[in-house]
Design a protein that fits this description.
The complex is a heterodimer of chains A (about 750) and B (about 150). By secondary structure, chain A is α+β, with helices and mostly antiparallel strands. In chain B, strands 2-1-5-3-4 form a five-stranded mixed β-sheet. In chain B, helix 4 packs across helix 7. The chains are: A alpha+beta (about 750), B alpha+beta (about 150). At the A-B interface, helix 6, helix 8 and helix 18 of A face helix 1, helix 4, helix 5, helix 6 and helix 7 of B.
Chain lengths: ~750, ~150
């Protein structure tokens, strides 16, 4: 049984630290501990057992370092806590903790290191340590990369288990009993005589009790919550309109701000005339901000309306003038001096292609907006050398740093309250809205300024998903795929995104080829090369990041070759697959879909497999040709995640990921003219609607040793599986998204 | 201007053309009604106007005067759920949840009119409500469950 043993608690439990009035567990991976972010933030009578949970008179609160943007991060973390601390899941309260370097994301660092040192073993461990230490120092308390579950799985359970045993030790000392005679249940320590002491009642007894550190985690067979269907803790609020999101928050004395930003991305504000805007009811101020103008009013709508009435003079964008220019820049990037990575180079591709009939094709993936349904917003108040911020963000440490710089104060003087998010898909890895709110707030000391972006400002000033292009050269022989050479060019998301935070990212960018370089196929001659195009539009992480384009390219390329070989898309993938876990997800979707190769007239199926964020995910899509166009009928998905912690939420996230991906593959595209986004709302940027949504069957596999997150991995295989299905049904090969440019959909 | 929202009469002093959405959210502080697009593309702001599902971003305040306005917070409460809300909880529909107020209001209006809607009717009526998280399979299932509950009631 190797499962779960890869999670060594020693890797991060090396000591404990004292905090006000008690003790806290430190989960530190390098020698110098970070400051405990709860130290100093505790009220009288509170004892912080670990940086991951707080115990006070009202019970246990999860201090979550990970943000919830709809994926159920609060819920699954609360379940991890409840499991080891013997709490009723419904009673766990959640508090997005203050920014703190101790909450660094180990799993994100490990993911980055895997690419830079692809061979496992010692070198990889060294790289994990090095990259991890660097990320820790940068304070990357980031929610992203589908890492919440892998990162928190052991940390939170360990923290909870230590807390449980320490509470038992405190009870034992208080009652003069042996701790081994005690047990815990439903938030209480149960004494041998049957008395139940609530955890909160033991707070005084915790003083002077050593933290119990070496606690074995419960085996999965003993789990009460994990692995079983649970009721997500936010379902009731989200079904009754009572969930408060960042955009809903009101602070006493608050004013409402809106912005009118230069529609040409990155262009300057040259001048403005606010005469008409200032005449409108409720308008209090019109102020310049970076790249535009902010209007302050007494109501969101009045601020929106007045912003529209501002007449501004704009400077130009530095972006290429037309989309043709964007694509030409990508086409020109397939050069030796722009080569970024070649992590896959099996066999001898040049020799194999030299003597063969070479199959060539080119593929494209467009810019995409994130467009979560809740527009971005932030409340900022600056006063007397302090700032307070309320916003939904995935990058709390960056927010703290950036607001501090604008306010001219120290980062520790910025208090951040992270809010529930109405979706993100990577959008809230950026913090432009917070910076602009802070720019207004410093001009109105003491006044909480709530800046809400209109949908139009949100969409046209999004930093989109990267565009990308790929070129295939391949060959087949004897009914088999024998050579696949894939060149992929795109701008570097990581450089663009981190660059906005003043962080340089050295080395190759794994995201240019993510999901392609690691495709688990033993094609005899197999090469994947990444080329770094210059930054055209500033780009940012979009759900599944690089795999959203490279996973499409590689699967689509493989499909072309399989067809040329006269083989079956699923059978040939199975024949080529050299990764047991990937083979199992392929076998699973074959069984689930009852894959039988060619279907009847006007129907077709496609299959794709991508490994992203450590998750092997296979999907089969089935379509039917109707009078109204292509109709999506069924999708079957299998994903290998090591452990499914909540089967209900798992199914929902996978189905949602498939729908998100299919909707964008069919409809999604942001285009720029002179740096101006040509789509500004959901009419110009349509998404999948309920009537288009297929039936989606989901299976989570648990054969691997590593537990993985499921937020992003269902996205990459969906587009190529759909393209394969459309080819099977119509004979039309789609090599460019969005597909609706080329075929009609019902 | 007098508005009746969730059975409560309110006097508001707003422009005649302020969208009902913003009267509800910013003047009456009923935040369960969501802003998503402002142009009737997403349905997050859906409320009932005399029982009919409407996009509150498209209704001027003066046109809502005298009407019975029902929001998600008047449809039911956490301790007294409407059948549609109960079905949403039972099927665990929400992910981010931001669109669900509008989805629920649209579904409740549908079921008031058609107690046993076919999938085709559900597809037709619900396709004006956008869910960026992709919870559509659960929305379909929850509507069927709510329909059955309401028929038995």
């Amino acid at each position: 049984m190797g499962r779960l043993k890869t999670y060594s608690r020693r890797a991060f439990l090396v000591g404990s630290v004292a905090v006000a009035g008690g003790v806290a567990f430190g989960i530190y991976a390098v020698r110098t501990p970070h400051e405990n972010p709860l130290d100093g933030a505790l009220a009288e009578g509170e004892v912080a057992l670990t940086p991951y949970l707080r115990l006070d008179a009202e019970g246990v609160t999860l201090i979550t370092p990970r943000a919830d943007k709809g994926q159920g991060a609060y819920h699954v973390q609360a379940a991890l806590l409840a499991e080891e601390l013997d709490l009723d899941l419904a009673q766990v309260r959640v508090d997005p903790g203050p920014p703190g370097a101790a909450y660094w994301n180990t799993a994100l660092a490990a993911e980055a290191a895997e690419f830079s040192v692809p061979s496992a073993g010692l070198m990889r461990n060294v790289a994990e340590t090095a990259v991890g230490a660097v990320m820790k120092m940068m304070g990357m308390q980031i929610t992203g990369g589908s890492t919440t579950v892998p990162d928190q799985f052991d940390k939170l359970r360990s923290a909870a288990a230590s807390a449980r045993e320490t509470l038992k030790a405190a009870a034992a000392k208080q009652e003069g009993l042996d701790a081994s005679a005690l047990r815990t249940e439903n938030g209480t320590v149960i004494l041998p005589d049957g008395r139940a002491l609530p955890y909160a009642a033991l707070i005084p007894a915790l003083a002077g009790v050593d933290v119990v550190q070496d606690v074995a985690l419960r085996p999965p067979a003993d789990w009460r919550y994990l692995g079983k269907p649970m009721q997500r803790i936010d379902m009731l609020a989200k079904s009754t309109g009572t969930q408060v999101y960042g955009i809903d928050l009101e602070i006493d004395g608050m004013v409402h701000a809106a912005v009118k930003l230069n529609p040409a991305q990155g262009g300057a504000l040259l001048g403005y005339d606010a005469t008409e805007a200032e005449k409108l009811r409720g308008v209090q101020a019109v102020l310049p901000v970076t790249g535009g103008v902010a209007v302050v009013a007494d109501n969101t709508w009045r601020a929106f309306r007045a912003a529209e009435a501002v007449v501004a003079e704009w400077g130009p964008s530095e972006m290429p003038a037309s989309m043709d220019d964007h694509w030409q820049a990508l086409a020109a990037a397939f050069t030796r001096d722009r080569q970024d990575s070649r992590q896959r180079d099996d066999g001898d591709i040049e020799t194999a292609l030299a003597g063969a009939e070479v199959i060539e094709a080119e593929y494209r993936a467009p810019y995409l907006a994130h467009a979560p349904l809740e527009p971005i917003s932030a409340i900022v108040r600056v006063e007397d050398g302090k700032a307070e911020v309320w916003t939904g963000t995935q990058v709390p440490r960056f927010v703290q740093k950036n607001v501090a710089a604008i306010a001219g104060i120290a980062p520790e003087d910025v208090t951040l309250h992270v809010q529930m998010m109405g979706g993100s898909f990577g959008h809230r890895l950026e913090d432009e809205v917070v910076k602009r709110a802070a720019e207004v707030a410093v001009q109105m000391p003491g006044v909480p300024v709530k800046l809400t972006y209109s949908r139009e400002e949100d969409m046209t000033h999004d930093f989109p998903r990267q565009i990308a292009m790929a070129r295939l050269r391949g060959a087949v022989s004897g009914g088999k795929v024998t050579a696949l050479d894939l060149d992929i060019a795109s701008p570097s998301v990581m450089v663009s995104q981190m660059g906005r935070q003043g962080i340089s990212v050295p080395g190759p960018d794994s995201q240019i080829v993510s999901g392609a370089w690691n495709a688990p196929f033993a094609i005899p001659h197999h090469r994947v090369t990444g080329y770094r195009a210059p930054e055209l539009a500033p780009v940012s992480s979009w759900r599944s990041v690089g795999a959203s384009h490279a996973g499409f390219f590689h699967n689509a390329a493989l499909d072309e070759l399989i067809h040329a070989a006269g083989a079956d898309p699923l059978e040939e993938r199975l024949r080529l697959c050299n990764d047991p876990l990937a083979r199992q997800v392929l076998e699973a979707v074959a069984e689930m879909s009852d894959w039988q190769g060619v279907l009847g007239e006007g129907r077709g199926r496609g299959v794709a497999l991508t490994t992203s964020f450590g998750v092997r995910c296979a999907e089969v899509v089935e379509v039917r040709v109707t009078d109204d166009g292509i109709k999506l009928e069924n999708v079957w998905v299998a994903a290998e995640v090591g452990r499914v912690l909540d089967p209900v939420n798992f199914e929902n996230l996978v189905q949602g990921g498939v729908i998100f991906a299919l909707g964008h593959a069919i409809h999604g595209e942001i285009t720029y003219e002179d740096g101006i986004a040509q789509q500004s709302n959901y009419d110009g940027y349509p998404a999948m609607r309920l009537s288009q949504a297929p039936e989606i069957a989901v299976r989570g596999l648990e054969n691997g040793d590593n537990i993985r997150g499921i937020g992003e991995p269902p996205v990459p295989p969906a587009a190529p599986a759909l393209a394969g299905a459309i080819f099977a049904a119509t004979g039309t090969r789609l090599r460019e998204m969005p597909f609706a440019k080329f075929v009609a959909f019902a | 201007m007098k508005l009746t929202v969730d059975g409560v009469a309110h006097e508001v002093d707003v422009e005649a053309d302020m969208p009902l959405l913003w009267v509800l959210r910013d003047e009456l502080k009923i935040k369960g009604v969501k802003y998503g697009c402002g142009i009737a593309q997403c349905g997050a702001c859906t409320v009932h106007l005399d029982g009919e599902a409407v996009r509150s971003c498209q209704i001027w305040a003066e046109d809502a005067e005298g009407a019975e306005i029902t929001t998600i917070q008047g449809l039911g409460q956490p301790q007294a759920l409407h059948a549609v809300q109960a079905a949403w909880v039972a099927h665990q529909v929400a992910q981010c949840g931001y669109c669900q107020s509008g989805q629920i209001m649209q579904a409740a209006a549908l079921l008031a009119e058609d107690p046993d809607p076919s999938d085709a009717v559900i597809d037709d009526v619900m396709s004006g409500n956008l869910c960026r998280c992709g919870t559509y399979p659960r929305i379909r299932a929850a509507i069927h469950t709510a329909a059955a509950t309401l028929r038995e009631a």
